[in-house]
């Protein structure tokens, strides 16, 4: 905020509780609540089912934005959006559909996993709509919005999530390698950059179109995984990639 010279913009938001409170709530929903829900879902019902269910968050976001923000698409674009969501869900399930990850573990709770997965859907979908509401309806700068979001998420993780996780032996991990620390830092910076692009996209074209572009992460993650692990994904995965790209182009087009 200092280098970008946007402290005044940020302080202006802090002086408006009616604007700040919804942003903070959306930050909690999209950050610690949504991500914790996804992790719990993966642990209880398997990563495959968790990925497939959580991929539905844009559908919830579209429904919410149509009600609260009056964002409308044509019937063709809604159809393309729905087909794209199905392709993302299939791709997410196929990428994790190994016996060790596709099914719930014997010690896991299916009901808890389903509730947690739905929590991630609600959290991530609400975050996008709240961002669109703040940036498009109240002219909040997207970088200020992201700063508040990351600050709230970081404090939540530091004060609540991490102390709770350290009580569980599975989370007691020590990173003694400098390489791993540097890698974690690089990944964090890439994640921050992607979120900045996502928030700017929401501010420019609205929540619906931005979410349509954001879910193409499934395509790029599959390509990156194929390059790094030197494995060829199945034909159905490539077919889903084509559907996702075409569907995103249709939804995001102006005409």
From TrEMBL:
Residues 18-91, 112-252 form the EamA domain. Pfam families: EamA. Signal peptide: none annotated. The chain crosses the membrane at residues 51-69, 76-95, 110-133, 154-171, 177-198, 210-229, 235-253. InterPro entries: EamA_dom, EmrE-like. Keywords: Membrane, Transmembrane, Transmembrane helix. Coiled coil: none annotated. SUPFAM superfamilies: Multidrug resistance efflux transporter EmrE. One of its GO terms (cellular component) is membrane. Belongs to the EamA transporter family. This is EamA domain-containing protein. The lineage of its organism: Bacteria, Bacillati, Actinomycetota, Actinomycetes, Bifidobacteriales.
């Amino acid at each position: 905020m200092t280098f970008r010279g946007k402290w005044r913009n940020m302080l202006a938001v802090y002086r408006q509780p009616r604007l700040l409170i919804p942003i903070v709530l959306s930050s909690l929903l999209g950050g610690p609540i949504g991500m914790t829900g996804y992790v719990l879902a993966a642990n209880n019902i398997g990563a495959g089912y968790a990925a497939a269910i959580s991929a539905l968050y844009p559908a919830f976001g579209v429904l919410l934005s149509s009600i609260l923000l009056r964002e409308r698409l044509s019937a063709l674009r809604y159809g393309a959006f729905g087909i794209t969501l199905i392709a993302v869900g299939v791709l997410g399930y196929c990428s994790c559909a190994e016996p060790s990850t596709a099914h719930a573990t014997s010690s896991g709770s299916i009901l808890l996993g389903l509730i947690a997965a739905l929590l991630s859907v609600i959290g991530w979908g609400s975050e996008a709509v709240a961002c669109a509401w703040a940036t498009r309806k109240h002219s909040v700068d997207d970088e200020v919005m992201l700063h508040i979001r990351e600050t709230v998420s970081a404090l939540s993780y530091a004060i609540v999530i991490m102390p709770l996780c350290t009580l569980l032996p599975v989370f007691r991990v020590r990173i003694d390698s400098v390489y791993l620390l540097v890698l974690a830092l690089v990944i964090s910076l890439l994640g921050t950059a992607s979120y900045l692009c996502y928030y700017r996209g929401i501010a420019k074209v609205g929540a619906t179109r931005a979410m349509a572009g954001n879910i193409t992460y499934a395509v790029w993650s599959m390509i990156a995984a194929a390059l790094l692990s030197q494995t060829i994904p199945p034909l159905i995965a490539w077919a889903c990639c084509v559907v996702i790209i075409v569907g995103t182009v249709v939804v995001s087009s102006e005409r």
